[in-house]
Input
Amino acid sequence: MKVWTIANQKGGVGKTTTVASLAGVLTQRGKRVLMIDTDPHASLGYYLGIDPEEVPGSLFDVFLAHQRLTPELVLAHIVPTQIDGLDLLPATMALATLDRALGQQEGMGLVLRNLLALVADKYDVAIIDCPPVLGVLMV
Ligand SMILES: Nc1ncnc2c1ncn2[C@@H]1O[C@H](COP(=O)(O)OP(=O)(O)OP(=O)(O)O)[C@@H](O)[C@H]1O
Ligand SMILES: [Mg+2]
Output
């Protein structure tokens, strides 16, 4: 599985648009694509018609469970989109509290890497959208 991260600390420069466009093109080419939204504003979900208030869980819950991650736990938080082969690990507003809630805990910088490793055989490409903030989420 290839992993791409679209990051820039400046806001409104086209990060989320790039994630959705790349994901769309790759899916059209037959790739299985996972998008991961690390932005508490959850614009990527809105972009795809997924309301962050209505998802069963989010990336935040995966961070909370970071010491006991399993493939099943990660997959339980991934939602399908209307497009076949294109899935989303959604964000929620709660992610905005991550720095304060968990930022000091050991191993927080490895949570994304660990969760990606657990679903690496399910997807060809993972694309990560970032918030325009140089915090624990972007790092
Ligand atoms: N290539 C482009 N040409 C014109 N407008 C664009 C282009 N790419 C994105 N936009 C528009 O620019 C605005 C910001 O885009 P987007 O939300 O992708 O930025 P972002 O970097 O993810 O923002 P944020 O940092 O707030 O998450 C949107 O209204 C989007 O439609
Ligand atoms: Mg964005």
The helical segments are 15-28, 43-47, 59-64, 71-76, 98-102, 111-118. The pocket of adenosine-5'-triphosphate (ligand 1) is lined by residues 11-17, 39, 43, 132 (CB under 6 Å).
